[in-house]
Amino acid sequence: MRAVRRWYLTWGATDVEAARTMPGDELLPRPDTLSTRAVTIDAPPSAIWPWLVQLGTGRGGAYTYDWIENLFGLGMHSADRILPQFQQLAVGDVLPVGPGGPGMRVAVCDAEGTLAFRSEDGRWVWIFGLYPTAAGTRLVSRNRISTPNASRLAGAVSRIVMEPGSLVMERKMLLGIKKRAERVPSVGHSPELAGR
Predict the structure, then answer these.
(1) Which residues contact 160 (CB under 8 A, 6 or more apart)?
(2) pLDDT tens digit string along 3-18?
(3) What's residue 165's pLDDT?
(4) Which of helix, strand or coil describes residue 120?
């Protein structure tokens, strides 16, 4: 069971990536759940970054299974093109996560390098890192989640249901970003070309 759990918490990530310290880790030093997942994208960071900064409800969506997101009332509609109106993102900006949910505040915004969000209740930190390699760019997604005062039953439900479920959604998201970013020519990247 431990090996299976490690697989779904580190899908696509190398041992080095799973162990690497990422900017934003310090925002939630001792999480109850930690996942690091990754994918290789045949595109430079400049072609991936625009898709990351437009994430969110009422923005570019999450590039995953919208119908599942919307079962929970999140109002997600994943964009297939770069949306110029959502390309300006700065530390301190708050992105809504569905109606009534805690907003995600931008904590780190290092263009074409790291984008980190922290939920307003302080229980969730979500970090995206872009790492150029000879094969393209590694997009690494890390979630750090705290569940204070959770019962033993709630902890078991999280491990058995929520953690594998998060892999289903996050894998689709990473592959969705990959598909979108790889459609854009690597040389002379222009946001206007996205979605063609």
Answers:
(1) none
(2) 888 888 999 999 999 9
(3) 62
(4) coil
- What is the tens place of the pLDDT at every residue in 17-38? 999 999 999 999 999 999 999 9
Contact 5, 163 (CB under 8 A): yes
Q: Average per-residue pLDDT in the chain?
A: 84
Read off the pLDDT of residues 91-145 as tens digits, 9 standing for 90 and up.
999 987 766 667 899 999 999 999 999 999 999 999 999 999 999 999 999 999 9
User: How much is the pTM?
Assistant: 0.83
All structural domains of the chain with their residue ranges: 2-188
Distance of CA 159 to the CA centre of its chain: 19
2-188: CATH, from 3.30.530.20, 3.90.930.12, 3.30.70.890, 1.10.3720.10: 3.30.530.20
Locate 37 and state its tokens.
């997942």
Distances (CA, A) of 156 to 11, 33, 150, 163, 176: 20, 12, 10, 10, 30
Q: How far is 94 from 129, CA to CA, in rounded Å? A: 19
Instruction: Give the residue from 95, 117, 98 showing the smallest Cα distance to 106.
Output: 117
> What are phi and psi for residue 50, nearest 5 degrees?
-60, -30
Inter-axis angle of helices 163-182 and 45-53, to 10 degrees?
130
Assigned token pair, 28 = 């939630």
